[in-house]
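Lab notebook page, bench 4
Experiment: in silico fold of construct C2
Operator: M.H.
Input chain length: 449 residues
Purpose: comparison with the prior construct
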Amino acid sequence: MLSSMKNMFKVEDLRNKIGFTVFMILLYRLGSHVPVPGVDVSTLQTLKDQTQSGALEFLRLFSGGAITQFAVFALGVMPYITSSIIMQILAVVIPKLEQWQQQGAVGQRKITQWTRYLTVAIAVMQSTGLTFLFKNGGQGFAGGNPLGTVDLFGGAYNWSRVLIVVISLTAGTALIMWMGELITQRGIGNGMSLLIFASVVSQLPANFGSVRAESGTIAMVLVGVMFLGVLVAIVFVEQGQRRIPVQFAKRVVGRRQYGGQSTYIPLKVNGSGVIPIIFANSMLYLPVMISSVLPAKQNADGGGNWAYETQGFINDHFSKGTSPLYLGIYGVLIVGFAYFYAAIQFDPHKQADQIRKQGGFIPGIRPGPQTERYLGRILNRVTLPGALFICFVALVPAFVLGQTLEGNASLQLGFFGTSILIAVGVALETMKQIDSQLMMRNYEGFLKS
């Protein structure tokens, strides 16, 4: 890897791609600090101090802190990620989308176009929801109190102000989507993944600074040691895969003989990546958003109506990233969504049918239904350790830090296992692409005897 990092700057074309990628990432980070029009800038620091919600902290992670600054890029890449996941799920149940997937580049362009439309629609809904959530001192639609006493609009809240904010946030999301696609086309690596990587990594120094300020240098060093341990474990698991051997029968066409080759189907231990974590957090984010629209009313004796009690329960258990109930439901959702996404990504029936059509077979397994059952059994066995691992990465650091650290530092680092998982996955994939680019431009290794 070190030799690749040294050699990638020697090739002019590759150097230009890397420079373009870095430039676009810098523009993305700049947009994460530009507040939307119509927002009272003086209240942004108060928003950073009072935002103690686990759900909003997860959005803060993927936006690179832009949501707590109510910047133009406050929504980050979440609308695009959500729309991409929805399109993958719909492709399983909608025959037309499945046909597009089988049409190659033409069908992929159609899917990409509809993904863009869906991203804009999701961005409009999310930006409208955030605008109402932050209105009137952070009291949501109908009198909740999820964000303390923050008034981002300086008391001047009207429909024209809402329209400006919604248009600005939606345009920011569309710009992020365009930047990500531009990086993919003209830069190096996957554009959206690199933007997520930049958002995640940019928060780590501030998080460690919060640990040092609130818990001391020793606590920061211990968190750093945990960080390195989780990093090594993630790299080890991310590289692990189960190889299923496939043998192709020999065929004689005229005087030539074809086939007779051996290959394998690689099944990654963590084939779903960070997608189950995103799914789980999206599900846990819904109760927090719903609680902000409940007509909560507090009585003089300190009690309240059913909406007030429901809102209090949700804020106590779902708004805190270290709550035992939150972590328990979080873990169950992660494991469930890991199996769900693995079934979408790898269909044993289609894979078995494809092997049969190509004249291949798995040694010791008959083609057809037996191969399908064998692949399904292997998929379930491989998915379980991968799901448990990402569940461990997401939960254990959050629980340990929540029990040992104090103040806002424990909440900010609650997703640091998720941060490492994202950063490692993107970094490994980008380095693989850089290695392939170097291999295309240097054939000396193939010519050596």
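Observations: The chain has one domain: 2-447. The chain has a mean pLDDT of 76.
Next step: discuss at group meeting.
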